[in-house]
Known about the structure:
Blueprint: H1 4-20, H2 27-34, H3 38-44, H4 48-58, H5 60-71, H6 81-94, H7 101-112, H8 116-119, H9 121-140, H10 148-162, H11 167-171, H12 178-195
Amino acid sequence: xxxxxxxxxxxxxxxxxxxxxxxxxxxxxxxxxxxxxxxxxxxxxxxxxxxxxxxxxxxxxxxxxxxxxxxxxxxxxxxxxxxxxxxxxxxxxxxxxxxxxxxxxxxxxxxxxxxxxxxxxxxxxxxxxxxxxxxxxxxxxxxxxxxxxxxxxxxxxxxxxxxxxxxxxxxxxxxxxxxxxxxxxxxxxxxxxxxx
Length: 196
């Protein structure tokens, strides 16, 4: 188990990085949010990049669970294979609920940041899993045009990470609600993959 202060730093870093981005965040802000001395961050994490990467590594169990669920889809030609692939893709993420709201926002921010390639978080922690999902989609939905599977995966990622934001739904006349949102999200991703 991680020491409590180290966890507090990671919790605070996750939120502040999600709000401000990698370049917009100072370690001093994280220390203040975690209610620790700046030197304690330096003790646990040698650099801002190491702390940033540790925030993602702490949540890597989510991607591991996604891959484990994907492995259970043994017959990619089965009638329910696509639904099971989509469930493997999204269920571990949406089960984070309130505990993972900042993480989901941070993933969206990192995935859309042009400078993210310098940090190698996406390429190191997400791309290996992404390639496995893309291969599964090729097996479940053969015959799509070149580039479809890769773009479809990225669009599904966008829909999944964007679903962390509930504040816009009321402004558009909708009603917030996790169960309703997740049902729509599941249907949306599945239909886009099947009929795209």
